[in-house]
Design a protein that fits this description.
The strands form 3 sheets. The protein has a 7-stranded antiparallel β-sheet with strand order 15-10-11-12-13-14-16, with no helix packed on it. The chain has 2 helices and 16 strands. The termini are far apart. It has 2 domains: 29-131, no CATH class; 136-275, no CATH class. The chain has 275 residues and is mostly beta strands. β12 and β13 form a beta hairpin. It has helices at residues 5-23, 128-131, and strands at 32-37, 43-45, 48-54, 61-65, 72-73, 82-86, 93-99, 107-114, 117-124, 146-163, 170-181, 190-196, 202-206, 219-223, 231-235, 240-241.
């Protein structure tokens, strides 16, 4: 049975509600208030108590605190009294310790390994970006921006160096193939390199001509797993921002070179904070 336009709009509205609810979670992306690299010797950091450091090789992170600092482990609630350590692989994160507020969990300290270096990010549930959030602005739903393309897999995944939202952090895009499609208002095919997600789903990160005007500098789109014949649906009404659109403390991946659309994709999420 064909999906009616009204049903598609209803599904999109449900998608938008779930998306906004996911952003508005306590200690989520909207609560980031700092990003700070850790040094090789114990030192104080902004917006948090304790002394933070890494070892000489940069393989282990350390935190030293006393009971009066009010730091507790996120996982167990145990008070930090002395020195604790953690080891992460590159691109991993750990919601490590917390402090502040009536319940002692207003601020969560996230330990992250980025580009082979340890950093911490403060996630403060009193941040105005979080408390004043009222949903992400979007273009109205338009069924013309839902198109069918085809997926052309590579013989083997290709690791492509990329930049990120943090100029001091480099990234890698594991391209598994290209999504080929046409869009309204263009007379030629587009090709976007894609990454593979769970269960064979795909993600494409792209630029288009709305960037810096009505949308952020780049966006991403999740695609369902390609059908057996290689066809795949791209619904740009579901194009979303990376966390770096909401905070200067993200390390979100940029698109690979040539993942640019030379038209205005007036669908999906807009800039959350237009000028």
């Amino acid at each position: 049975m064909a999906t009616t336009p009204a049903t598609k709009v209803e599904r999109w509205q449900r998608f938008r509600t779930n998306r906004d609810n996911a952003l508005a979670t306590p200690h989520g992306w909207l609560t980031l208030t700092s990003f700070q690299w850790l040094e090789g010797s114990p030192a104080a950091v902004d917006l948090a108590p304790g002394l933070w450091s890494t070892d000489g090789a940069g393989t282990t992170a350390f935190l030293t605190a006393v009971p009066s600092d009010g730091l507790t482990l996120v996982e167990t609630g145990e008070q930090v009294d002395g020195t604790i350590s953690a080891v992460l692989a590159d691109e991993e994160s750990l919601m490590w310790v917390q402090f502040g507020g009536p319940n002692g969990d207003q601020v969560v300290m996230e330990l992250a390994m980025r580009g082979g270096r340890y950093a911490i990010r403060t996630r403060d549930s009193s941040s105005p970006v979080f408390t004043d959030f009222d949903g992400v602005p979007t273009y109205p739903y338009n069924s013309d921006w839902e198109v069918t393309g085809r997926f052309e897999p590579y013989p083997a995944p290709l690791d492509v160096p990329i930049g990120t939202a943090n100029p001091l952090v480099n990234g890698v895009h594991r391209s598994v193939g290209e999504v080929v499609f046409r869009l309204p208002g263009s007379n030629h095919e587009f090709r976007l390199q894609a990454e593979e997600e769970k269960l064979g789903a795909l993600t494409v990160t792209f630029h288009d001509e709305t960037n810096g005007d009505t949308t952020d500098d780049w966006r991403k789109l999740s695609l369902p797993r390609p059908r057996p014949d290689g066809s795949v649906v791209l619904d740009f009404n579901r194009a979303i921002n990376y966390p770096s659109a909401f905070t200067p403390y993200g390390t979100c991946p940029m698109p690979v070179r040539n993942n640019s659309l030379d038209i205005r994709v007036e669908a999906g999420e807009k800039q959350p904070y237009p000028a």
